[in-house]
Amino acid sequence: MIKLKQHPKYDTIVSWGKLISITGSAQIIIQAVTFASGILIIHLLSVKEYAFYTLCNTMLGAMIVLSDSGISTGVMSLGGESWQDKEKLGTVLATGLELRRKYALLSLLVTIPILFYLLLHNGASWLVAFLITLAMIPAFYAALSDSLLEIVPKLHQKIYPLQRNQIEVGIVRLFLSAITVFFFPLAFVAILAGGIPRIIGNVRLRKIVYGITGEEKESDPEIRRKIIDISKRTLPSVIYYCFSGQINIWIISYFGNTTSLAQLGALSRVVMLLSLISVVFSVLIVPRFARLKNDYSILIAFYTKMIILIVFISILVIITLCFLSEYFLYILGHKYLGLDKELILVMIGGCINMIMASGLSLYMSKGWVMKHYISVGFSILPLIVGCLIFDISDLVGVLYFNIFVAITEMIVHVGYGFYRINLLRNKQAE
């Protein structure tokens, strides 16, 4: 035992162990509450209403990504460089928030007409489409700032207050969903019940952030220029990925039917359990990678270990689900029994996307941006080929299509991370 404590890696392992156990325990609670809320809504809503709910949440995700357009990447990159200077970090955050509000209007103008059309296409009335769109605004408003605000406590590894806030938001959402959707089993009510707690959590998150950086700062023109530069380089890819990220939902909503759309939405609830891993990764790993010096030997070792770790976890998750698929379907309810094959295919696609997103978030935290004609070009080709190979009017066909596209994107983005790190070796050799 004494020899073990004297090992040079002992303190590091103990430190990581404590961080992972604390972060992991809190995330288990957060994901359990979120999962419970999702299951409650699945059971209370009819298949048709849940199809509308799935479509709205998917569009909300696209709106959030489009309104960000690389701003969070710029804030994480610049914040990682100046995280020890609280004054400058606050200025970086203020500049990012200002830009995010301006981008939000463009996002609304692009996505609202598309959401309206798809809702009407899937059988919603004009009144229902209007109420669903209106109910989405609170969640969208909160999302404009919370993803940026979280960067500050993540960089300072102030994990406990951040996760406590997330737990409280999740509990309020569960309680509000239970008492509202039970009496009014409508999609717009469920969406509204999820958005209001996010606004409350957003207010508390600001208190946490400004406790670190001090009072709210003014934006800075030079920082704005740097963030916009990163945003310009990422914007074409962002526009593409905000819709391709949930390509299976878009395809089913247009070529399929409300039953298939609801089934895919329900199965995706199980895949959301992967967010436990993704959040721990984004909270503990990505900020540390952003703070590392641009030294080849340090970055290649860290990046390789993290990719291997996330691949190993993904394989373990898929194997486990193969044995437990019936239990998860039972939890979803009788409307979704018998979808064992579909559930496993959804999880495989989710795991591949998680590996891709891990590599992407690591290299982008350094401000490295792949040229859009490369990233989009390598993504459009498998979309075209996949549409020719698979039956995209059928749920199983769409899931195979999703896996095919995800594999290509994983290879591109994980490979690009290795490529950018390797460039550092060439520079150091010179």
UniProtKB/TrEMBL annotation:
<feature type="transmembrane region" description="Helical">
    <location>
        <begin position="373"/>
        <end position="392"/>
    </location>
</feature>
<dbReference type="Pfam" id="PF13440">
    <property type="entry name" value="Polysacc_synt_3"/>
</dbReference>
<feature type="transmembrane region" description="Helical">
    <location>
        <begin position="20"/>
        <end position="44"/>
    </location>
</feature>
<feature type="transmembrane region" description="Helical">
    <location>
        <begin position="307"/>
        <end position="331"/>
    </location>
</feature>
<feature type="transmembrane region" description="Helical">
    <location>
        <begin position="126"/>
        <end position="149"/>
    </location>
</feature>
<feature type="transmembrane region" description="Helical">
    <location>
        <begin position="170"/>
        <end position="196"/>
    </location>
</feature>
<feature type="transmembrane region" description="Helical">
    <location>
        <begin position="343"/>
        <end position="364"/>
    </location>
</feature>
<feature type="transmembrane region" description="Helical">
    <location>
        <begin position="50"/>
        <end position="67"/>
    </location>
</feature>
<dbReference type="InterPro" id="IPR050833">
    <property type="entry name" value="Poly_Biosynth_Transport"/>
</dbReference>
<keyword id="KW-0472">Membrane</keyword>
<keyword id="KW-1003">Cell membrane</keyword>
<protein>
    <recommendedName>
        <fullName>Polysaccharide biosynthesis protein</fullName>
    </recommendedName>
</protein>
<keyword id="KW-1133">Transmembrane helix</keyword>
<keyword id="KW-0812">Transmembrane</keyword>
<feature type="transmembrane region" description="Helical">
    <location>
        <begin position="266"/>
        <end position="286"/>
    </location>
</feature>
<feature type="transmembrane region" description="Helical">
    <location>
        <begin position="103"/>
        <end position="120"/>
    </location>
</feature>
<feature type="transmembrane region" description="Helical">
    <location>
        <begin position="398"/>
        <end position="419"/>
    </location>
</feature>
